[in-house]
């Protein structure tokens, strides 16, 4: 390692070593040490593949791994905890791989993750009071941290574990300036037993560093290039202390319907070299991105610095153009980064592990069982309820998935325009059972007027909650109302169809048994015969938009608008022989072919 200290083959030093933030450097037992970290989110990688991905980080020349913690994944309903020990298991795997660990528990994480990691029920209750000193919000955070932090505390470096640093909030200076809130979080972490070093991370701008840093807590900066300028901005606020780029953006994420974002590997390597030449520590974001399984991808809003414009939903893949791709394979960036990082190690870098096994032979299947979307909602969704005005997803307790709204327009009346106010995010509209159009935020009015009497059905879908900016926490579904000419329609019946409803595999099989495919929206089921199971890509030629499950594991959203063309299938999800496939098609399937392909 730089600074003349060899951290050893396991990268961690011995039990009892003291890791601390020194006056100029990070220190291990008083000797300078540089953090060479990589971001890898345990919740975006199949657990059986954690070991391989962590070994890839070591082979690239890293001595540390960083991960966020998504509150909404682990507490989907108030008080209902889901696999909270996953974080602990991941930290144990990091320790076994010889890596230190930086934990960023939020409570807000951004991460291009639905709602920035905040539970929808929390932001529905609090609105803009979230991420502030508001007493109700802080009570929720305190209750959450009391459950989560034991996973971290028992694995801290001073107890023989890998955790050397814990972050306070996340890029708070890009959102607010409530110093009382930030200090409370720092104190709360300490009160729950966090003895590891604390830090914050923000963009290298004055308003971000003043809004997001905490006196007495290490401040770090996030950027993708121009390291000297970024660190100069940090030094204006913090003349002393280690320099660290907590997020070196070596790639970027993609949005549905937009061109893919790629970064020239040499350009990224040159930017990394500049960070290292500054004598700074770094966390490569992302070292390995993984996948937004189960519809957890977030969304952004366009509009420059305000981030208040058109919705831009994130794709299912979180490949991020990272040095280790979505399948866990080294890219050109990997080898360039490895060459740079090897010069900062006192020992030869380990060889990369063998690549994950790939599917031995392609497979395809026609999906022969089908049930219409209405029947799916009636069988698996929430009980239908009637409301004066359309309820939001939050009102119906739906985090990810669909909501069906039904209303009856009175008559007789002449044709009038039908539009939706406050639509988030899309609605496929049927009038008397016939498709009448697709509405969006930008185009909320049907192309043809509607006469009364008529029954109107609107199938709305959340394309991901906003994860960054002032509109984090905004509601989904119809947040205003349905207008016929200038008159609101009332007496709206609603059914929620959360993606979690498909966790009941027996109910799904019973629902689809014996149905006949029609090439229409609905739930399709079939079987793929697999020989030589391994990592694969699932393609859905001609299918338009929806979700896919393989053996009950939700691979995520597909959408014909691209740029993503297929869905990553982790090898552990597949099995030899018959593999059950479910496709929930929202807009309408491709005629009579109804084929899926695994390759």
TrEMBL record:
Enzyme Commission code(s) on record: 3.2.1.23
Gene3D superfamilies noted in UniProt: Galactose-binding domain-like, Glycosidases
Enzyme class: hydrolase
UniProt domain Beta-galactosidase galactose-binding: residue ranges: 521-579
Keywords: Glycosidase, Hydrolase
Pfam families: BetaGal_ABD_1, BetaGal_gal-bd, Glyco_hydro_35
Domain Beta-galactosidase 1-like first all-beta: 390-490
Catalysis performed (reactions): Hydrolysis of terminal non-reducing beta-D-galactose residues in beta-D-galactosides
Similarity field: Belongs to the glycosyl hydrolase 35 family.
Matches recorded under PANTHER family: BETA-GALACTOSIDASE RELATED (PTHR23421)
Name of the featured protein: Beta-galactosidase
Organism listed in the record: Streptomyces lasiicapitis
């Amino acid at each position: 390692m730089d600074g003349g200290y060899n951290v050893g083959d396991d990268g961690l030093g011995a039990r009892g070593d003291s890791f601390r933030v020194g006056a100029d450097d990070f220190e291990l037992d008083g000797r300078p040490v540089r953090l060479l970290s990589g971001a890898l989110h345990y919740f975006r990688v199949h657990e059986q593949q954690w070991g391989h991905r962590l070994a890839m980080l070591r082979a690239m020349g890293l001595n540390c791994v960083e991960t966020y913690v998504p509150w909404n994944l682990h507490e989907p309903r108030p008080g209902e905890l889901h696999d909270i020990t996953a974080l602990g298991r991941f930290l144990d795997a990091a320790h076994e791989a010889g890596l230190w660990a930086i934990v960023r528990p939020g409570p807000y994480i951004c991460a291009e993750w639905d709602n920035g990691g905040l539970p929808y029920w929390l932001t529905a209750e609090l609105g803009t009071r979230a991420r502030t000193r508001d007493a109700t919000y802080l009570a929720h955070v305190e209750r959450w941290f009391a459950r989560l932090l034991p996973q971290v505390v028992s694995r801290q470096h001073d107890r023989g574990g890998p955790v050397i640093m814990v972050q306070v909030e996340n890029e708070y200076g890009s959102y607010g300036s409530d110093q009382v809130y930030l200090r409370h979080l720092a104190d709360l972490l300490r009160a729950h037993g966090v003895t590891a070093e604390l830090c914050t991370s923000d963009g290298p701008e004055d308003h971000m560093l003043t809004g997001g840093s905490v006196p007495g807590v290490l401040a770090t900066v996030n950027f993708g290039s121009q390291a000297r300028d970024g660190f100069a901005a940090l030094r204006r606020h913090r003349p002393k202390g280690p320099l660290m780029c907590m997020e070196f953006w070596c790639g970027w994420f993609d949005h549905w319907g937009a061109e893919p974002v790629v970064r020239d590997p040499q350009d990224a390597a040159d930017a990394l070299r500049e960070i290292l030449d500054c004598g700074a520590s770094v966390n490569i974001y992302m070292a390995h991105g993984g996948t937004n399984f189960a519809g957890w991808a977030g969304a952004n809003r366009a509009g420059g610095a305000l981030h208040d414009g058109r919705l831009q939903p994130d794709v299912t893949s979180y490949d991020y153009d990272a040095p280790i791709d979505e399948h866990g394979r080294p890219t050109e960036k990997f080898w360039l980064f490895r060459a740079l990082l090897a010069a900062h190690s006192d020992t030869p870098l380990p060889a990369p592990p063998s690549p994950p096994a790939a599917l031995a032979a392609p497979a395809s299947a026609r999906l022969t069982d089908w049930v219409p979307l209405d029947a799916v909602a009636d069988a698996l969704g929430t009980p239908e309820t009637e409301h004066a005005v359309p309820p939001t997803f939050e009102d119906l307790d739906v985090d990810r998935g669909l909501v069906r709204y039904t209303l009856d327009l009175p008559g007789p009346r002449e044709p009038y325009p039908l539009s939706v106010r406050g639509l988030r995010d899309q609605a496929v509209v049927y009038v008397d059972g016939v498709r009448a159009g697709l509405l969006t935020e930008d185009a909320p009015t049907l192309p043809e007027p509607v006469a009364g009497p008529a029954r109107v059905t609107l199938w709305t879908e959340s394309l991901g909650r906003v994860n960054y900016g002032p509109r984090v926490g905004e509601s989904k579904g119809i947040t205003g109302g349905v207008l016929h000419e200038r008159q609101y329609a009332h007496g709206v019946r609603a059914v929620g169809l959360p993606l979690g409803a498909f966790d009941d595999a027996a109910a799904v099989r019973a629902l689809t048994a014996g149905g006949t495919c029609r090439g229409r929206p609905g739930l399709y089921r079939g079987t793929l015969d697999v020989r030589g199971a391994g990592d694969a890509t699932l393609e859905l030629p001609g299918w338009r938009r929806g979700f896919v499950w393989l053996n009950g594991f939700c691979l995520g959203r597909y959408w014909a608008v691209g740029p993503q063309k297929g869905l990553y299938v982790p090898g552990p999800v597949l099995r030899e022989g018959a593999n059950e496939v479910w496709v929930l098609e929202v807009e309408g399937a491709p005629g009579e072919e109804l084929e899926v392909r695994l390759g």
